[in-house]
Specification:
The complex is a heterodimer of chains A (about 260) and B (about 260).
Chain A (H helix, E strand, L loop, with lengths): L1 H25 L11 H10 L1 H35 L1 H14 L8 H8 L3 H25 L3 H9 L4 H38 L3 E3 L2 E3 L1 H11 L3 H29 L1 H7 L1
Antiparallel strand pairs in A: 1-2
Helix pairs in contact in A: 2-10, 3-4, 3-6, 3-8, 3-9, 3-10, 5-6, 6-8, 7-8, 8-9, 8-10, 9-10
Chain B lengths: L11 E12 L2 E13 L4 E5 L6 H9 L6 E6 L2 E3 L6 E4 L11 H5 L1 H6 L3 H14 L15 H14 L4 E5 L7 H18 L2 E5 L3 H7 L2 E5 L6 E6 L11 H15 L7
Parallel strand pairs in B: 3-8, 3-9, 6-7, 7-8
Antiparallel strand pairs in B: 1-2, 1-4, 4-5, 9-10
Helix pairs in contact in B: 4-5, 5-6
Chain lengths: ~260, ~260
């Protein structure tokens, strides 16, 4: 029953929404050039499946690179901020303040600097995925029970041993929730880069990612294709979130036993 | 069972150790010229009113806190910070929640870079000795308070430090589990002959375990009395001699501090 409530009800709600939508379009309440029917989106997904898959892979590539870059730099900077007070007092307030800057706004500049290719998309994705990771890493390392650290000290542990055996594992729940947030942000960042960015030639044709595809489709009035791109984008975003959630479940399996 | 490397014999001596903390800009004296001795293989208890600085004293011996004055001798060598041959165990078991029970007990050997296979064999035997067999691969959250404290005790033993500092190690346990823990501790002591200095506010616990009990005054703590407990083990709290010593100890504890002229 609980599982039915968790998944069944939202699914039922979505299906009835789609049904109302379909009826509204078919009975002519809404013009098809403004809003294609769900069935039309479905057939567009079939018709353009190769194009959609290629562009999804392109987006995934930008998101993946962006997230990996954000993860590695975020972890390193988070740890450095924790251990280096001067760096922290210089950078941490700026980091917190700069969270409010809309990084999408610098995407046009990045395109001027780095061209229409792969790089600016990765940079935007990295920039916005980076913040939750670096801040959560620092905060997580800091929130460790000081008595655990004292215990390690009396055992003669070095600073590095304390980091590896106590601080990092203790910070991991917070770091992973930062990564989850970062993964979602990276998709948004890459998409924004694609929306204003360009494409590249591949044997399959012009590939510029889902954002590029949706922009071009909408410009040409192919709203069914634009919607199909959105479906793939949502699936990509959910899948990425799911992967990080699975990783979290595995890495924090000791917490699952704690809840039981 | 024997540890692969036997525990060294340790002799601890504190001489005129004083410590103040700063509170709101004013010095708050916590320890006032404390002198005490722990001989090899002795179990020594510290009792005193709560907040009198017992924990600070243990932290000084463990090297976590530096005293303002006084000297600490470990095996007749003067040490300014006692870090090294001591293992410190608190009322909180401080098990790492992401490590299974067995892995938690191996923390000391791991940090010291010792051979983990030997340590693991010893740990497994200690799990059996302490009635924990079958719980080696269980996360701490799934263990009861008494079991967690026993795991912490195994971890402390496996550090192979010659001096154990126990800060109200059983304070958080219910009375029944606590009595059980006393039996485990005494059994481990008979096996390994370690030296231990422990803090308690349970007078009966002090008399059940210790060879000598130091009674501390209220803050700033001074040594009011050092009482030798000559009772043969196993001790029974209802025996006449035990009851007599308990009365004596309580008298010392409740005595008002003497006016200094």
């Amino acid at each position: 029953m609980a599982r039915y409530r968790e998944f069944g009800m939202p699914t039922l709600f979505l299906l009835s929404l789609a049904l109302i939508w379909e009826i509204a379009v078919r009975t002519g309440q809404i013009a098809t050039y403004l809003l294609p029917a769900p069935s039309a989106i479905g057939s567009a997904m079939l018709l353009y499946r190769s194009l959609l898959v290629q562009n999804t892979l392109a987006t995934l590539q930008s998101v993946g690179f962006g997230l990996l870059l954000a993860l590695s730099t975020g972890l390193i900077l988070g740890i450095a901020l924790f251990y280096w007070p001067l760096l922290k007092s210089t950078l941490y307030p700026l980091l917190i303040a700069s969270r409010n800057i809309p990084y999408y706004a610098i995407a046009p500049l990045l395109i001027v600097w780095f061209g229409l290719g792969f790089l600016p998309k990765v940079i935007v994705a990295t920039l916005i995925a980076f913040f939750p990771i670096v801040v959560n890493t620092h905060d997580g390392l800091k929130a460790v029970d000081p008595d655990l650290v004292k215990l390690m000290q009396t055992l003669g542990a070095s600073r590095f041993q304390i980091l590896r055996k106590v601080r990092f594992p203790a910070a991991l729940p917070l770091i992973l929730s930062g990564v989850k947030l970062g993964a979602v942000f990276a998709v948004v960042g890459a998409l924004f880069g694609e929306l204003i960015g360009g494409q590249r030639w591949t044997p399959e044709g012009l590939i510029g990612g889902l954002g590029y595809l949706m922009r071009e489709a909408a410009n040409r009035g192919a709203l069914d294709l634009a919607f199909a791109g959105m479906v793939w984008l949502s699936a990509l975003s959910l899948a990425l979130f799911g992967v990080v959630a699975l990783l979290e479940r595995y890495l924090l399996r000791w917490q699952i036993s704690e809840r039981a | 069972m024997k540890l692969a490397r036997p525990i060294d014999k340790t002799h601890l001596q504190l001489s005129q150790v004083s410590k103040s903390f700063l509170r709101e800009g004013h010095p708050l004296p916590v320890l006032d010229r404390i002198s005490l001795t722990v001989n090899p293989e002795e179990l020594v208890a510290l009792v005193g009113p709560s907040g009198c600085g017992k924990t600070t004293l243990l932290q000084i011996v463990s090297g976590l806190v530096i005293p303002d004055a006084g000297e600490i001798f470990l095996n007749d060598a003067r040490v300014s910070d006692g870090r090294g041959p001591v293992a410190y165990m608190q009322q909180k078991d401080l098990l790492l929640p992401w490590r299974k029970a067995l892995a938690n007990t191996l923390l000391g050997p791991e940090i010291a870079g010792e051979d983990l296979r030997t340590a693991q064999t010893e740990a497994r035997q200690l799990f059996v000795d302490f009635g924990l067999s079958g719980f080696e691969q269980v996360y701490p959250a799934q263990l009861s308070g008494g079991m967690r404290q026993r795991v912490a005790l195994i971890r402390t033993l496996l550090c192979r430090k010659s001096l154990l500092l126990l800060d109200e190690p059983f304070g958080a346990l219910d009375a029944f589990t606590r009595r059980q823990m006393h039996d485990w501790l005494l059994r481990a002591w008979q096996e390994f002959r370690f030296t231990a200095l422990f803090v308690t506010h349970d007078v009966e616990e002090a008399l059940l375990l210790a060879d000598r009990v130091y009674v501390l005054s209220a803050r700033p703590a001074q040594v009011k009395a050092a009482i030798e407990v000559k009772l043969a083990r196993p001790r029974v709290p209802t025996e006449r001699e035990f009851v007599g010593q308990k009365a004596q100890l309580l008298t010392w504890l409740n005595q008002e501090p003497e006016e200094e002229g």
